[in-house]
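Reviewer 2 asked us to include a model.

Predict the structure of this chain.
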Amino acid sequence: MSFAATLTRTTVEERVLGLLLPYHRTAEAIPSEPADHPEQLEQIRQFTSADETIVFTLPGFPCKSPNPAKVLGHLPDEGERLSLRFLDGLCARIGEIYEPGARIVICSDGHIFGDLIRVPDDHIDAYGDELRALIDREGLRHLDTFDLRDVHGDLDHDTKRELVTAAYAPSLDALRAQVRAGDEETLRLYRGITRFLFEDTADFTGTNSALQRECKRRAYGVIARSRAWGDLIADCHPRSVRLSIHPQRAGSEKFGIRLLDAADAWATPWHGAVLRGAGGEARLMRRADAERAGRLVSSGGRPSHFEVVA
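Predicted model (structure tokens):
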């Protein structure tokens, strides 16, 4: 008898999804149940019905914010290490209740919009290389990586961006129309991306209102390319369970997942720094805020995180 057949099929999917629910990244105040996520239950069922390893795809881990008030540098640090360990551990826990187990493909999207977020391509390369080295060093055997090198090889970055945009990106006019019409998902993303672009711009010499206008313009491009990247991932991994680092409501086609504790529902390791409390608990926040609350800790000769001194 197959492993999945030892439980009712629905129970298998609900138990797997139940492990993710405590980390659901959402703007909604009411906790959800597995039944509130039919899209993910169906995606998981594609694997459990065939006794196959469940494959999750997670666009994210692009590069560090270019704002030194938010991050410690341009390479992965304790925030990425803890987040990757969390994701690997989540797969291990799934393996305890579903024998074929699970894998998460980290789909690094930095090069897709690197020019729009004003991060040099060589910094994005260095971040991605160190991310893969970190996965190897930590022995995170449930994680894989995927980026533009897996799609368009050694072509230059501008050409790669143009190819993906031409093949998959929605038009900017279409996105503007969705925002004007009040499309909930697009409007929420537009506001979140605009905020990030505004916060991440550290060297603008004009007024705040001028910067806000520029960030709103760039936000449409970031959203268009992000959606292009998502569609490309769907083509390359058509049966995967789709995760997101952005807040997602229950019932969405993607499941928003929180990597580390933070006061901000949009916080990620690449937009902040880790502050460890006196009890060892880790929390994400702006580097400037963490610096005021704790002392800097280095690892491997590089700044890693901050910790509260008892």
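Residues 208-236 form the longest helix (29 residues). Residues 143 and 303 are 25 Å apart (CA to CA). We have added this to the supplementary material.
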